[in-house]
Design a protein that fits this description.
By secondary structure, the chain is an alpha/beta fold. It is built from twelve helices and eight strands. It binds 1,3-dihydroxyacetonephosphate (13P). The site of 1,3-dihydroxyacetonephosphate has 14 residues, from strand 8.
Length: 261
């Protein structure tokens, strides 16, 4: 499949890490990255969004600001939640939905993930919809079935016209934060199947334009091999995104995915 028109994407999901000083140091270190051949988005915790936004702007950086979570309803009586309008007010233009920690630790359902995905798209945001199987599901040979179910449920009611703002992140749960990575061949196989499900939901042309990221223990040492696979268009990075040098090296590794175009 021709991949020439899929711009590589690297997301840095900082998860529930760092503090004000650390967030500023990190964005200081990664601020010069991005805006070239790869789209680079960082997802800091809520309390640091504004200061990271201010630093991105004062550095003239082309790194994009994202948020890890939000409530899909309009502003109102919803104690402890953060709305999409609030995120927009903090210069956020990309959000994550369906992350495994929210599915399996917080207990978010497919229908909530779908509601969030649609609300964010309706508000003009970019959405990175995360999918992926648990270890027991992989061992039971259910990887592709789980991915297909999460994909169909997450994108239910999303029309083809919005797909240019949808990115899929395949993150096998057993590979997240464990140091275990899917082999590049296994990851490629899962990505190719994800793309064929997208083709059957929409069209081959639309599926061919969508970015599908790999996530789960991506490091500078394995990024290039993963990104050189034909259906892997970048990565969603957890631990290694907390180190500016490592994150920069991973972004540079997306060159491997451009060359094939
Ligand atoms: P790690 O890179 O720490 O495995 O995390 C991956 C992830 O969950 C990114 O969203």
């Amino acid at each position: 499949m021709s991949t020439g028109d899929r711009k590589p994407f690297v997301g840095g999901n900082w998860k529930m890490n760092t503090d004000s000083e650390g967030a500023r140091a990190l964005i200081g270190g990664v601020g010069g990255i991005g805006g070239g051949d790869a789209e680079v988005v960082v997802y800091p915790p809520f309390p640091y969004l504004r200061e990271v936004a201010a630093d991105i702007s004062s550095q003239g950086s082309r790194v994009v600001l994202g948020a890890q979570d939000f409530r899909h309803e309009p502003n109102g009586a919803m104690t402890g939640c953060v709305s999409i309008d609030m995120l927009k007010d903090c210069s956020v233009s990309s959000v994550l939905t369906g992350h495994s920690e929210r599915r399996h630790v917080i207990g978010e359902t497919d229908s909530l993930i779908n509601a969030k995905t649609k609300a964010a798209l309706d508000a003009g945001m970019q959405v990175v919809l995360c999918i992926g199987e648990l270890l027991e599901q992989r061992e039971a040979g259910q990887t592709d079935a789980v991915n297909e179910r999460q994909l169909r449920a997450g994108l239910e009611g999303v029309d083809e016209g919005s797909l240019d703002r949808v990115v899929i992140a395949y993150e096998p749960v057993w590979a997240i934060g464990t140091g275990k990575t899917a082999t590049s061949a296994d990851a490629q196989d899962a990505h190719a199947k994800i793309r064929s499900v997208l083709a059957s939901m929409y069209s081959k042309e639309a599926a061919g334009k969508m970015r599908i990221l790999y996530g789960g223990s991506v490091k500078p040492g394995n990024a290039e091999e993963l990104f050189s696979m034909p259906d892997i268009d970048g990565g969603l990075i957890g631990g290694a995104s907390l180190n500016a040098e490592d994150f920069g090296a991973i972004v540079s590794a997306t060159r491997a995915s451009i060359k094939r175009g």
